[in-house]
Amino acid sequence: MTTATLPVYTKKDFQTDQEIRWCPGCGDYAILSAVQMVFADLGIPREKFVIISGIGCSSRFPYYMNTFGFHTIHGRAPAVATGLKIVRPDLEVWVATGDGDSLSIGGNHTIHMLRRNVGLKVLLFNNKIYGLTKGQYSPTSEVGKKTKSTPFGTTDRPFNPISLAIGSEATFVARSVDVFQQHLKDVLRKAAAHKGSAYVEILQNCNIFNDGAWETVTEKDARSENIVQLEHGKPLIFGKKRDKGIRLNGLDLEVVQLGNGITEKDLLVHDEKHPRAAYAFLLAHMEQRPGFPTPIGVLRSWDQVPRYEDLINDQIREVQARRGKGDLAKLLRSGDTWELKA
Amino acid sequence: MPLTTIELPKRKREVIDQAVIRFCGDSGDGMQITGSQFTNTVALYGNDLATFPDYPAEIRAPAGTLPGVSGFQVHFSSSDVYTPGDSVDVLVAMNPAALKMNLPDLKTNGILIVNLDSFKENDLRKAQIVTNPLEDHSLDGYRLFAVELTKMTRAALKDLGLDAKSMDRCKNFFALGMCYWLYNRSMEPTHGWLQEKFKNKQQLVQANKLAMQAGYSYCEATEAFQISYEIPPAKLAPGVYRNISGNAALALGFVAASQKAGIPLFLGSYPITPASDILHELSMYKDFGVITFQAEDEIAAITSAIGAAYAGALGITSTSGPGMALKTEALGLAVAVELPLVICDIQRGGPSTGLPTKTEQADLLQALFGRNSEAPIPVLAPSSPGDCFWIALEASRIAIKHMVPVIVLSDGYLANGAEPWKVPTIEELPEIPVHFETNPEGFLPYRRDPVTLSRPWAIPGTPGLEHRIGGIEKQDVTGNINYEPLNHEHMVRLRAAKVESVANDIPPVIPEGDESGDLLIIAWGSTHGPITAALNAQREKGRRVGHVHLRYLNPLPRDLGEVISRYKKVLVPEMNMGQLLMILRAKYLVDAQGYNKIQGKPFKTSEIEQKIEEMLGLSPSVAVEDDTDEQAGE
Question: How much is the pTM?
């Protein structure tokens, strides 16, 4: 076995000399920092990384990463990245996007990327607001939200990005939070290791237009009551005293208090490989129910589904093996031809 | 029982120069296949030819109705052919609806073959015909052959054990057999095609062969026709030929470009009439490493191709007008990030969904200007089905050399029409040099080649070249985000100058016909055929007329203005409201006149000729011929 020396990087190697133009205090800084640290540790040559983005605050991401980067147009990053990844399956292609970019104007590309299982890692910066256009509601904003474009409150029902991803047959779906650096890096590393599409929703604070949108999740005193950390093979326990759990009850979930005869053994044990869509849906919908915590961590990780770019390139290799590599002169003369002599 | 309305001389074979046949019938009657087979056979024989498939947008309109009529016209000759022909010598009409729709194009005393079995009361009603034209003497001016196509086909196939429906599906080959007899053509090429097409269905091979043979024998035995024709091979330049449609030629051209450039071909496309065949064709060439991506929409089709170009592939996207509209924003992105890309717009009638299966040239201004802000893009247009091959190569070459998106404007007429195409040797193909930047020393993403003004193609995965690009305005050379006023003006002018520099490679304008004179015709795209035919006819009459057919619409050739100045008048025929006309008038301050036909149909030679005569003061003013009668019901 030859020992190729793996590149050794620090976070600094992934920083650029560009002035960062996010508002001071924006959650994007924390995400940038986590991604830079994770990239440095992956043992992958820097030139193999490409970051593709659409439009919005989050989509400025590539300019601040010292990798190859392409800031495209609104909503289309998954499609640009798909073309790139098909031609170059060897590259590590990450998509930086937001709730408007990915779920509104780019919703179509998002679902098709996920169903195809293109080997892209998607960072969905979800701040439940349009930041760059200065404060209109987004497709993840809660009903009734008063914004610049909805002075009397929104009447739109929001998307749950995790549900949408699961419904699109995504093979890796996870959620983390901008300020949970360790958790975020953990999730990003798992996303990096996943072969197919990895969809990571990052709950991100926009301190200018939607400050505190994720307060119940991030606020130090409240967070342990309102979050359940999903870990593969472990029971779903939460609460400051780790005294509450999630139990399966028929086709539904319920929150139970541990003790009084209820032990960890009664709780649902997280299975990120669970083959049924219903399982991940149940988890995804918890946060919308009173008394239920918001799940973070990896909701689904299916590792047996082939990557789209591999299927395409395998098919080409298979045809070439069967027919031989194309001969242009022969191709031009194919079909019925006739010759006219001088 | 066959009827002949005109007494013909005793059976003989006459050598003639050319003929035009149109097969028409219901969409389900196999008229496109019948026409293609006849075309293939005459092509193999060595005739020059041009075809015009004309079919409805509906896949299967109700059988027997006027909207369901599908036609295929082929013009073949022992001399040069430029158009599918203004009018037809032989009309094969499989039902009353087809007869009603197509009869106006049949020459007086032309041959008319109809399926007698489909002229029952019900058939006539579906075609909204009150009295049976086979009985009311309205067809007296033609040589009518009312043949029991259905009945005789069934008789020929009775021993094969097929059901009636399957047998009836072969009646088009009975008609094909008749036409082969009429023009003394061998049935061998069609036998070969049947064998290939129905490899695993020998019964269908047999059935179609028998039907075709029956049609042939019918003519031989019954002496229905008193005469048959012989059209000797054309005197084309020596070489190997094949018959090719515009879309197939585009696909081949892109495969050739990819091979010459030594980079993979990536087509991102979303199905749309009449461009889908490019996707179909290219999806077959996996042995050439061709990647075809049927995207979720038109936008993903172009943006995936941009992603592929970013990765170092030859990125292509193919569409028609409505799809072109959707791709607009992404075109601007390709302009801004300066990546090579080829966009094929196979134009059709519009606006909106318009006439999906009919031709038009009305996307020119959209191609030139249809983007936000100043976003110049080179625009090329092929002039014939075979020229589509060369345009694909040229568009790819320009895109790569100048790092720009390039638009190819074909149209439905070129896309589906076919002509004999002289197959080039590999040596005849242009070189398409590709240089991927690999040297990190002093690398900057927008540092330009001083001649082509192109920036380096620095593909992801190259060590030391990590950099960022995007749609935001950037500083020249460094590519850093930059909103400064003077930088923006500099970049706008630079992108324009880069596109303008494409003109350095455009060959000088050499008019066809007279190099100076009374009238210059300037045109582009699929009108080349009828204009050439009209030009030749007019020059034979001594008129001093020249013709410039523009393959480069942006930038225009640098010497075009000088060429224009050599003529007294300028005529610009277009299948739109005068789009090139507007450009020429603006750019050259010339009092050019337009001649515009917007009927979803190509110009007829006679129309162009009349217009030339009018411009020369030789005939009264003409309007485009009103084809309303033929279009009834569509």
Answer: 0.93
